[in-house]
């Protein structure tokens, strides 16, 4: 049984989760109701059961499936449905954190990334909510799998190691925001080692792992070796590409760099022609695609104990 918070409590929690006043008001106006929105309510119940049944679980080696996006025309209740899902799960998330001895400051720093996700949704889609995005990171945060520690975020989980075996790894996620400076990354890696060894000692980690367009070595063709991005990707040993890899990331960069919807691939010349060219990364994006090539998301590893 899902117990949604009252409007007063929801508004308080949304503020704690970093949600702007405009997004708070639109969320309250889009409250789902089992009688008025029976199909959406059934979807909410399914998602709630899935999230709570995996509470505290590390990611399996074969990953997990994101909660699917809604089309924009589905309306505001659908686009805010996952926000209400997270509000419903939140009390159980906080109890789980407390049982693990995780301090409230880290809990709220992790969970309050919901506000920036909603802001990004409005920037990309021109609409409130989060439902225009596939839900990858937020469900992991609310089930106790992902944590924000300084500049970077980390998923607990099983994964492939460089030797081809499977073991515990920390999967990195790089949120947008402040620069990806070497010092901020070093600080975050140190925080991660301390945090996970203290709160999850039964999960011996061997490597940091990352799958991202930020590890595309083609970036070094356009950016300085002293750039934050190139210095970040040089930390990792890349997994060799195979002919069957589905790693094209043109849409991911389009969304990240230009706040444009990423589902409309391929990126045509007419779309490239109207993109701003204000930063070296924006210029690299356009020049690379115009040369007939594509951007790639690559997988890389970094030893857990020799990150610097």
TrEMBL record:
<feature type="domain" description="GNAT-like C-terminal">
    <location>
        <begin position="147"/>
        <end position="302"/>
    </location>
</feature>
<protein>
    <recommendedName>
        <fullName>Acyltransferase</fullName>
    </recommendedName>
</protein>
<dbReference type="InterPro" id="IPR041273">
    <property type="entry name" value="NAT_N"/>
</dbReference>
<dbReference type="Pfam" id="PF18164">
    <property type="entry name" value="GNAT_C"/>
</dbReference>
<dbReference type="InterPro" id="IPR041644">
    <property type="entry name" value="GNAT_C"/>
</dbReference>
<dbReference type="Pfam" id="PF18082">
    <property type="entry name" value="NAT_N"/>
</dbReference>
<feature type="domain" description="N-acyltransferase N-terminal">
    <location>
        <begin position="9"/>
        <end position="138"/>
    </location>
</feature>
């Amino acid at each position: 049984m899902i117990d949604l918070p009252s409007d007063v409590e929801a508004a308080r929690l949304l503020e704690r989760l970093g949600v702007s006043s405009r997004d708070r008001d639109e969320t309250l106006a889009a409250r789902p109701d089992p009688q008025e929105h029976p199909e959406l309510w059934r979807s909410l119940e399914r998602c709630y059961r899935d999230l709570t049944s995996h509470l505290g679980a590390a990611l399996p080696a074969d990953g997990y499936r994101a909660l699917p996006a809604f089309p924009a025309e589905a309306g505001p209740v659908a686009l805010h449905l996952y926000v209400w899902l997270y509000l419903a799960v939140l009390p159980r998330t906080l109890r789980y954190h407390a049982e693990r001895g995780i301090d409230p400051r880290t809990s709220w720093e992790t969970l309050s990334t919901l506000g920036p996700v909603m802001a990004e949704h409005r920037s990309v889609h021109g609409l409130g909510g989060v439902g225009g995005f596939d839900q990858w990171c937020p469900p992991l945060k609310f089930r106790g799998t992902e944590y924000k520690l300084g500049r970077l975020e980390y998923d607990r989980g099983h994964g492939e190691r460089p030797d081809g075996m499977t073991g515990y790894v920390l999967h990195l996620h790089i949120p947008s925001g402040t620069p990806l400076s070497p010092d901020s990354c070093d600080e975050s890696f140190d925080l991660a080692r301390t945090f996970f060894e203290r709160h999850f000692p039964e999960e011996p980690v061997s490597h940091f792992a990352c799958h991202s367009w930020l590890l595309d070595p083609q970036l070094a063709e356009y950016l300085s070796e002293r750039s934050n991005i190139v210095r970040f990707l040089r930390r990792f040993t890349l997994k060799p590409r195979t002919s069957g890899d589905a790693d094209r990331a043109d849409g991911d960069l389009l969304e990240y760099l230009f706040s444009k919807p990423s589902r409309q691939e391929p990126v045509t010349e007419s779309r490239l022609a109207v993109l701003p060219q204000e930063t070296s990364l924006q210029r690299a994006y356009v020049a690379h695609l115009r040369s007939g090539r594509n951007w790639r998301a690559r997988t890389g590893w970094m030893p857990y104990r020799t990150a610097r």
